[in-house]
Fold each of these.
Amino acid sequence: MFRTRIATALLCLPLLAGPALAGEKRVYKVDAVIATWKGNTLSVQANGAVSSGGWKNARLQIVRKDARSVTLEFVALPPPAGMVVIQSLVPVTASLDIRAASKVTSVNTLAEANELTSQVLR
């Protein structure tokens, strides 16, 4: 009885871990970031690359925001395990509009292999 429960629990572990593994991950690298003011909104556009085909829904998400700077993470959904994809760098883009204090002067964008800091254009 006890062994059966342990075996059942061990067999169910991959099923429980699946959704957590299927979450967003940082893109491989960020190549360029342009941040400009549009009225009271900070508009950020980023270009970068993922390490293979099959990635989708690239986006920028706020990690930290203070009076002078904003830190963003460049993320996307990786391809499902076992999916056949091209093994090459594939370009991705994302943009984000942020309500921020007009004193923000820099945007730092994080990727897996690097990070890039850009001055905000007026």
Amino acid sequence: MTGHGQPPKERRAHERVGKAMPVHLHKGNDAPRFDAKIVNISAGGVLIETDMPLTQNDLLTIDLDLAGEKEPIYVYGTVVRNDARGIGVSFVRISEITADLINYLIRKAQGDSPRTA
């Protein structure tokens, strides 16, 4: 038997949800903020689009403005790739509360999309 015709195995540890959402990025406390857009998000990271010059291993702060929250949620991440699909950022030092909020956002996004029977 050959392996042809079988889909590639999914390597992601977390389910990703396509959820276009504006965010802000910065590299340090005094660094300028850049506008960005989340292409998709999971509990482990995000794929973003931005004009901010980024390279692999850059450390970022992502300001998430979640609906219903008075203050933005600050999430730290490391750039793991930067290619034609966008900039892949893996979350680091994420608190349990922040992880729960991101998971809530993902569940809410899944509920917003129509399901087919």
Amino acid sequence: MEHEEQADRMEEDAERMEQHSEQLGERIDDVEDDWERKEQDASVPGARPDPHDEDETGDPDAAGADEP
């Protein structure tokens, strides 16, 4: 019985970790969306895109497009 109890606890832990992972992913998406909105708002100091992040075309959105 001890192995079954341990397996049950491990399954519960895995489910709990999966929920936390999903919640963290949602929070990350929310923060990224918020930052993108702030980058477009000239009234937010320090949130303008870094000109060094631009690619050769001058398009800051294209920089790093081939990166994951």
